[in-house]
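Section 5.1 Outputs to date
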Amino acid sequence: MLRKLFLLVSLLVTVLYGASLWKFTDAASYRVVDNYLPLAALVAMFIIGLIHTRVALWLALLLTLLLGNLGLLNELCIKVFHLPETAAVFTRFGSPTESVLLGLFAAWILKRFWGNAELDFEYNRAHAVRSLHFFVFLYGLTVVLAAAHSVLIAQNIFASTFLTQVRSLAATLPFPFFSSPGLLAPLRLALTVLEAIIVYTIVTNEVRTMHQMRGIMWVLAVGAVIVCVIGWLQWQFDLSYGNGIWRYNKEVHSTFADPNTLGVFLVSLLPFCGALIRRGVAAGIAGGVIAAVLITGIVLTSTKSAILLAALCIVVFVVARILQSLRAKRTTAALAAVLVLVLIAAVLNGVRFMGKNPEMKWAAGISRKIEDTSRAVCTGRWNLQGINDRTNFKLGDWLTGAKALKAEGGKIAAAGAGLGRFKAIYGQYRSGVTSRSRDGASNMFIQTWVETGAMGLVALLVISIGAIAAGVRAAKKAEHPFCVRCVPLGLLVLVAACLVEDSFQQTQLQVVFWAYVGLCMVASSLTAREETPRGSGLVKFVLVLLALAATAWVFHPVIKQQHEESVTLKDLTARYAQKYNLDEPKLLSQFEATRDYGFNRKFGTRWSEKNALVMTKVAGPVIVFDLMCAHPDVSETNAVNAKLYFAGENLTNLIFNGRLPEQARQTVRYDLSADPKLAHLVDGQAYEILRIYVDRTWVPAEVMPQFKEDTFSVGLGVSDVRYEQRGEYQPPPPSPPAPATEPQEPVPPAAPAAPAAPEAPAAPAAPEAPAAPAVPEAPAAPAVPEAPAAPAVPEAPAAPAVPEVPAAPAAPEAPAAPAAPEAPAAPAAPAAD
C-alpha cells in the first residue's frame, strides 16, 4: 500500500511539473518551438530513465555540466558554428537542469517502487552504503527550515495578500510558484538543493560495481573536456561573458555560472587523471591529455585558488611517484627528485615572469601575493588588513560570518539567518577589514552555518568528512584501487577549493559534490566488513529534535509578532474603512503592502492623492513629518488647503500659498502627550492612522514632463513620519539675534551713533508689540544712512514709520534732518501701547 502511495505521489509531481512547463497562454504559443524544449527534456529523461537508469544518470550529469550558461550556447551556435539566428533556442529554456533531474527522478521512483531495489544488496553492503543517509536527510531538513525562515522574515504569512497569491499561484503554475522572484524565492533555493541530492540518492542505489563507478568518472572527465573546449572558444571568439569584471579580465567560465565554479570543478578531476596515468600506457596517455586540457581550462578561468590547487596536485603526484620509486629502490628516484625541484623553480620563475605581463592578471596577482607574503614573513609585519588583501578579501568574508554567528544572542548560530540571506546581512555584520559588500562567506561551511544553523553545519561536516574517510578506507581494501582512490581525493580537492570560494551554492557544483559523495559510499559498500546493527536511533532522534527546537526558538517570536501585526492591521482597516467610507479589502491590501493608502511614489517621494492615510506606530510624544506642495498654480489667492487628522482627531490645518521653499514645504511638529485625546496613544505604543486631506489635486505631467505618461492625481509630498522626545527640537531662537548683528556692522564707522546705544532698550519693546516683523526691515534703514548724512543712523529707531508704504517717498526728504529731534517721540509709541 505504501509503495502504491509513493507511486501516485511521484506521478502527481511529474504531471504537475510538466503542466507548469506548458507555458502556453494563447493559440499563437503553440507555434513557438522554444516552449516545447523544457517539457521535451523532462519527457525524454523520463523515458530514458525507464529504459536504463544508469545511462539516464550519465546523460543527466553531462547535461548538467553543459546547460549552465544558455546565453553562451546561443552565441556559440551563431558566431562559431554560423547557424541561423533561429538556432538560438535556449533563451526560453527555463531551468534545463531541473527538467533533466526531475525527469530522471520520476523514472527512478517508478522503477524503485515497482521492482525490488534491494535485489543486489546484502545486509552489510546496504548498511555501508546508507551510513550517511540520515545526515543527508538532516542536511535537507535544515535547508528546508532555513528557506521557511527566509520566507518568514520577508513576508507576513498571515497577510491576506500573501495567502491570496499563494493560493493563486499554487492553483495555476505549481513549480513557477516556487520560482517566484519575490514571494517564495527562498523555497526555490531549497528546491535546487533537493534536486542535487537526487543525484546522491540515485548513485547510491543504482551504482553497484567498480566498472559502473569508472563509467561515472569517465562521464565527468569527458564533460570537463567539452567544457574546456567551449571555454577556449569563448576566450578565442570573445563570446558572452556574464559579468563586466570577467570580460575585463578575460576570465573564462564556459558553460558554468562563473569562473570560480568552473575552476573548482576542473581541479577536482585532476586526481582521476593521476589515477589514469598510473594505470598503464594507454590509460596514461589518455590521462595526460585530459590533464593538459584541464590545466589549460583552469588557467583560462584565472581562478587563483584553482591554479594553486592544481599546482599542489601536480607536486603531490610527482612526490608520491618519487616515494614509490624509493620504496622500489629504483635508481631513477634521484633524477626524479631533481626534475621536481627544477619543475618547481620553473613554475615560480614563470609565474614571476608572466606577472610582469599586464594581460596575465592572474599571474600578476599570484606573483604579487607571493612577494608580499614573503616580505611580511621576513619583516614580521602581519595585520588583518594585509592578510585580507593577500587572500583576495576572503579573510574579511570569514570574519564577517564569525561576527554574524555571535550576534542576536546566538540565534543565528543555532538556527541560522535564513537560506540565501548571507548577502542580505553582510552589511549589517561587516568586518572592519572588508572594503565592500560581497555575495557570500567564501567558505562552504561558514556559509552553511550562518544560513542553516548548527545542525546544518554538523550534517555537512559529517557528510564531507565521512564520505572522504569511507572512500580512503575502501581504497586500501580494494583489489584494483585505480578508480577508488581518485574519488575521495577528488572530493577532498573540491571541498578544499570551496573553503575559499563561493562555488558550493551553484547547482552544477552541488550535483558534482553529491555525485562524489555517492561514489565514495558505493566504494565503501563494495569493501564492507561484517557489521551488526547499531542502536543509534536515539541519537538521530535527538539531532532532529534539536534542529526543530532551534527553529522553533527563532520562529516563535517572529510568528507571534506577525500575528499581532496582522490583527492590528485588520482592526485598523475595519475602523477607518467605515469612518472614511473606503473599500475595506483594498485598504487592507494597501496597508499590508506599504503601510499606507492613497499614495503614488516617484523617485523616492510619496505623493498623496486627495485623501491619503499613513499607518504609523507611536514611538514618542512628539510626532514630526514634512509636507511639500508642488502645485503649478498655487498662489496667495489660489492656496492649497490641507487638513491633518491623527487617530480621527484634527491635528492642524495647513495653507500652501507660494512656491518658495519656506512656503512650499512645511514641517508639522505636534506634541501628542499634551493633547488629552491623544496622550493615551503615547503610553500604549499603539499603531494609528495619520490622515492627510487636500482640497484639490493636480496631475504631475502638467509641470513635470518626465511624468507625461502618468495620469495619477497628486496632492502633497509626504516624508516619513518620525517621533521625537520633548525638548529635542528647539524653536528658531537664532532668528531674532540675526537681525541684531546685521545693524551692528555699520556702527563702528558711525562713532556719533554711539549715544544711540541707550535706545537699545526700546528694541525689546518692539518685539512685545505686533510690529515685531518690522524688526527684519531694520536692515533696510541702514541703506538710507549710506547717504552722506551719517547722522541718519539715529533714524533707525524711526523704523516703525517704514512699514507705511506711502512714506517710502520720504526717503528723498532726507535733507529734513532737523526732524531727527522728533526721535524722542519713539518712546511715546510704547506709551500708546
